[in-house]
Design goal:
By secondary structure, the chain is mostly helical. Helix content is 78%, strand content 0%.
């Protein structure tokens, strides 16, 4: 029973180390962060535009 608890703790340590390494890699490369920011901004702009469009008319030309 004791080994199961140790294994669960080990997986959490591995997870934290890998996530920390990924975050450090992203912050060390300015181009990657800028690309991610621009991509998220573009996605948000597209989403906002799509929401602002009025509803499409049905086959008779009437809007609901």
């Amino acid at each position: 029973m004791k080994k199961i608890k140790l294994q669960q703790g080990q997986s959490m340590v591995e997870y934290v180390v890998i996530v920390g390494a990924i975050i450090a890699a992203l912050y060390s490369a300015d181009d990657v962060m800028e690309l991610m920011r621009d991509t998220m901004k573009g996605s948000q702009e597209g989403y906002s535009y799509a929401i602002s469009i009025s509803e499409l008319p049905d086959e008779n030309g009437a809007t609901p």
